[in-house]
């Protein structure tokens, strides 16, 4: 009908969307493209359709979604947000940062949905387990599927479970709109707008007919919004920094909790003069447990899982990334995982000669290698790595100046791209405590981890500080 054609024209012309007021309760000012994304979602929701927001990594898909939910919160009863386990806590943190809405985590042993809870955040694993019980019984006003490429296989249990959800409006979020394999593309758009294609027979037609494939993409256009950094970051600072809060896998958490209990007990009874040296060793142990844990035959690492998920997308889109850690053993573990995936990488640590070091830099700068593994001592200064547009700070450095020096290897004159910096932090761990303390005492941690001589800490760290870190 003419009315339907006009609706599609509105959706395709992002510059002339209806002017929905941006919610005043959001604790941040939106960029212009973020406000457009918000208005686009509002229009699709008003039309009772569905949305696939496929902006580039780091452009604020979570922020746009929270802004949308905040704007209609008075009319909401129940909203379900589904995401990978590793970013459950990040969603909660982003709500706390930007909105007054108080989400409920529905995961592990916290499996309770209070009657007055509006926003429920859960994992794809729980969705699969409970689609025929708790989660499947609700009539959801809005369902948000983050990192929806996890459901890209149309025949997977996860995708089938998502289809069973009862929802008035669905939002799919992904930094990788899957357009190489039409069945994956079909699946994701159908998750956002169920029935948009008709039925599976239509999909088979699209697969066989080249022109029909083009038609399929045209059909999807009003429901998918994709902006790249190059398109929208002309008016932005060159550096976007994100602290991403991750949660331990269950086995990691058990081992970490047991270790910190032992350390606390030792801290309380140890009164001798070597206390500071022991505390530094204990801190080092806890920090490393946040990075990786060698349990039985397997190495567990929530952070490496997060890194690999992101690197997959970065490599696929022909971008380049720097990965920093203070621990060469940690870089060894990451390197093995990267080799398993067949990705090309450069590396620098203290064992590299100047000649070998320059060869690694040249290979990265030329675009031959997409990933650069760098140890702090070897790569914090003096490198020009402007080919990178992503930086991962895998373990927090107590002196912010050191972090900035590392980031500035990429963020410097000659850099043509905007830089996105990710700092993965384990929620509720010693990492979070040290960052809290760093905020309170900016200079307190200078040189803390480079030297175990207790004289260096006289007058800098008090026993109360250590107590707070271990609390």
Structure description:
The termini are far apart. This protein has 471 residues and is of the alpha/beta class. Strand 5, helix 7 and strand 6 (166-173) form a beta-alpha-beta unit. It contains 20 helices and 15 strands. The strands form three sheets. A seven-stranded parallel β-sheet has the order 3-4-2-5-6-1-7. The chain is globular. Helix 5 packs across helix 7.
Strand order, biggest sheet? 3-4-2-5-6-1-7
Largest sheet, if any? 7 strands, parallel
Tally of extended strands?
15
Rounded to the nearest angstrom, the radius of gyration is 24 Å
Mean pLDDT: 82
Number of helices: 20
Estimated helix fraction: 40-55%
Task: Explain briefly what this protein structure is.
This protein has helices at residues 2-12, 32-46, 61-71, 88-98, 124-130, 134-137, 157-164, 182-192, 200-208, 210-220, 229-232, 250-269, 275-291, 302-316, 328-340, 354-365, 376-379, 400-407, 430-440, 463-470; strands spanning 50-53, 79-83, 104-105, 119-123, 139-145, 166-173, 224-225, 239-246, 293-295, 298-300, 321-325, 345-348, 371-375, 390-393, 419-426. It is α/β, with parallel strands linked by helices and 471 residues long. The protein has a seven-stranded parallel sheet with strand order 3-4-2-5-6-1-7. A six-stranded parallel sheet has the order 8-15-14-11-13-12, sandwiched between helices. A two-stranded antiparallel sheet has the order 9-10.
